[in-house]
Amino acid sequence: MAILITGGAGYIGAHICVELLHEGYDIVVVDNFSTSNLEGLNRVKYITGKSFKVYNLDITDSDKIRQLFSKESIDSVIHLAGYKSVSESTATPLKYYANNIAGTITLCEVMQEFGVKRLVFSSSATVYAPSNHDGPISEDHPLGAINPYGQTKEIIEGILRNLYLSDQTWSIRILRYFNPVGAHESGQIGENPKGIPNNLMPYIAKVAGGELPVLSVYGSDYPTKDGTGIRDYIHVVDLARGHLHALKAAEASEEIDMFNLGTGRGYSVLEMVEAFERASGRSVPYILAPRRKGDTAICYADVSKAKKKLGWEAKKGINQMCHDAWQWDRRKHGSGSAGTVLLLP
Ligand code: WQD
């Protein structure tokens, strides 16, 4: 029996593959490689010494997904596949609704046909409604995504809740990511956004590495300690381990539940700049720029529920996040591949 990981070739997916393989699970990866490539999965094989099957297909293709389920013996699904850029979703909302929502519906329909009813779903803190609340956000915080990307995650969460209510033999865990950053300690896998990064950490890394001249700090007049935005950055390996704990919870009991995956601590943009300069030994020049549309001042997680019900908490601190991100950025075109994984049509 294997765990199917949709979107497993991506930044977060590859780190989840590593953790599941280390834990002794058999995995099967599905990816359409629209925002990733096979090299990351070859590096997963290199890191773990384990092989696994990879299907190059789109989760909206029900025939292909059905063929996969008929060929492979799937026990549970970790569903990550989906577009994830807030700015892109605002420019092309239909692409996001069609891919993220329709893809999930197709996946769940085929899972139901084959009696596979264990699902861990990749959601996001962007499902939460903006608020002036400057404390930690719990899972009970009101929902109210303000961009199409976050709305797809909110809509999918509602679909999964109704699916469970229609058939309570489903076992579903929904994971709301805060801000994943960093890279595997090996320096073999990490975040590799195409073009100019939207997100803070990869942008800072490119400035530190001299690939970009200066960081624009979006907003210095927020009601925070230094006026810049505060976020809950979580090491991607901690995030991956959160999926392992959620999978085991889904194996243990049939219910639906949702969990914040964060550290419970917020850092400002300027604190991230300082931490990265310490980790890299490089300077990160910046300019203070106007606020970015759609940004909130403060967003960090109440992580008590995941600790209590999943037995999981983030362990890596901001210095490790920056160190590992910097090491990956220096090595990303680097070495090491123990051959290639089996890529199936
Ligand atoms: C972090 C902080 C910016 C870039 C996004 C998505 C969210 C999730 C994580 C998918 C903010 C500031 C950023 C820059 C800056 N992705 N910033 N200069 O917006 O909190 O969350 O990524 O699930 O859905 O919304 O992350 O890294 O873009 O911004 O000053 O060049 O850094 O204003 O305060 P964000 P981010």
Automatic annotation (TrEMBL):
Isomerase among the record's keywords?
yes
Keyword Isomerase assigned: yes
Q: What is its EC number?
A: 5.1.3.2
CDD domains, from UniProt? UDP_G4E_1_SDR_e
Query: What are the UniProt keywords, alphabetically?
Result: Carbohydrate metabolism, Galactose metabolism, Isomerase, NAD
Q: Which reaction does it catalyse?
A: UDP-alpha-D-glucose = UDP-alpha-D-galactose
Q: Name one GO molecular function term.
A: UDP-glucose 4-epimerase activity
Which NCBIfam families does the UniProt record give? Answer: galE, PRK10675.1
Which Pfam families does UniProt cross-reference here? Epimerase
Q: Which cofactor does it need?
A: NAD(+)
Q: Name one GO biological process term.
A: galactose metabolic process
| Entry's Gene Ontology cellular component terms | cytosol
- Similarity comment text for this entry: Belongs to the NAD(P)-dependent epimerase/dehydratase family.
InterPro entries, A to Z: Epimerase_deHydtase, NAD(P)-bd_dom_sf, UDP_G4E
In what pathway does it function? Carbohydrate metabolism; galactose metabolism
Residues of the NAD-dependent epimerase/dehydratase domain: 3-262
**Binding partners and assembly:** Homodimer.
Name recorded for this polypeptide: UDP-glucose 4-epimerase
